[in-house]
Each structure stands twice: as C-alpha cells, then as structure tokens.
Amino acid sequence: MGRGKIEIKKIENATNRQVTYSKRRNGLFKKAEELTVLCDAKVSLIMFSSTGKFHEFLSPNITTKGFFDLYQKTSGIDLWNSHYERMQENYRRLKEINKKLRREIRQRMGGDLNELNIKELQALESKMDSALLTIRERKYHVIKGQTDKHKKKVRNLEERHANLVLDLEAKLDRQDGTVENGGYYESAMGVAANKLYGLRLYQNQQPELIVQHGTNDLRLA
User: Which UniProt keywords apply (predicted)?
Assistant: First the structure.
C-alpha cells in the first residue's frame, strides 16, 4: 500500500514540524548534490528553519561569492553596490547622531551656547535642572544608606559592650575577694565575646574595669 497524500499546510505540532523540516531538508540537499554531479550544474541552497537555524548547500566547484557574482552577471543586478550604498547611508546617519550627541555634551558643560536661541537655552536649562535633581536624589540615597550602616555598626558595638559588662558583673557576683596587707586585689580575669577583660580592685578605691581590644586597653572606672 502506498502512503496517503499529505495535506500541504503548516504542521501545528512543533516537534513534528522540526522532524519534517530535517527530513525534507536532507532530501533537497541530496537532490542538489545529484544535480551537481549528474549535470555539472552549479547549485546553491540557503535555508532557515522556523527556529532561525541556518543551513546551506553549495556545489563544490564554486564559492559563495562566486555564486553571487554569477547571479549578478546573469540577472544584471548589482547586489554589492546596493548593499554598499545602504551601508554608506547608515554610516552617514550614525555620524550625524554622534555629532548631535557631542554638541549636546559640550552644551551641558557650558560650551557651544552662542548659536542657541532663547527657547533652546530654556530647554537646555530645563534638562540641566532635571538632571541635577536626579543626581541630588541619588546622592541623598547614598548618604542615607551609609548613615544607616554606620548607626547599625554603632548599635552592635554598644550591645556587645553592654553584654560584656553584664557578663563581668555576673562573674564578680560569684567571686569573693579579700584585701591582703593593704595592697591591691589580684585581677579578676575573664573572656567574653572574644574580648579580654580584667578587674583590678585597689584599697579604698573604686573598681577599675580593663577591657583589652587587640593591643589597646579600655579602662572603665
């Protein structure tokens, strides 16, 4: 039994559509190769799938440029000149845009103002005011962020210091000390929150709290 006739319309299923494209593309390339060998023909096939993939077949006895040169000679159409003209036009357009942007930058820096009329000067002033407002808002936002970060750091240090004092007081409450020969007590030492602290008690004097941070001592009477 022969295959049924396939209705020529777009295949809705994406997977089936891609499979069909691959099979028929390979069939076309095979036919193009047969024409090249059997008939000594110059054949070029350029194909783009629905997903944008590029596929090309070119007879081995000609280059892509040579094929287009032959096409131009046969059809009388100069593809390269028209393409070059489009490139030149695009270059002139981009060059003019660049010129305007450079002039606008100079004007925002206070240059090239002599040729501007009152309306153009007012428009430039309005743009400058708007830009200045945006810059100031950003500056205040950065300052606020830095200030909040500093305040948070100070609060953390204050909390660590308060916890250190509480820990020290708790340790002292559990300790008994006696005065010997009118001298000073031995230092009560302890460690809390990665800080080294000591308490020295002198005769007839207030206690002295020493908190060591790195190579520095902080004395709290």
Answer: Coiled coil, DNA-binding, Nucleus, Transcription, Transcription regulation
Assigned CATH topology for domain 14-77: SRF-like (3.40.1810)
Contact, 196 vs 212, CB < 8 A?
A: yes
Whether the per-residue pLDDT at 115 is higher than 80: the answer is yes
CA 90 to chain centre: 30
Domain residue limits, the chain: 14-77, 78-127, 162-220
Q: Count CB-CB contacts under 10 A for residue 18.
A: 15
Quote the CA–CA distance of 81 and 63 in Å, as a whole number: 20
Instruction: Average the pLDDT over each of 66-70, 139-143, 192-196 and give the range with the smallest value.
Output: 192-196
* Per-residue pLDDT tens over the stretch 161-188: 988 888 888 888 776 544 444 444 444 4
Distances from the Cα of 43 to the Cα of 80, 85, 219, angstroms = 21, 28, 94
127: CB partners within 8 A, 6+ apart:
108
Tokens of residue 85, six digits? 């003209």
Give how far the C-alpha of residue 219 lies from the chain's centroid of Cα atoms, to the nearest Å. 49
Give this prediction's pTM: 0.36
Side-by-side strand order, sheet with 208-213: 188-192, 195-200, 208-213, 216-220
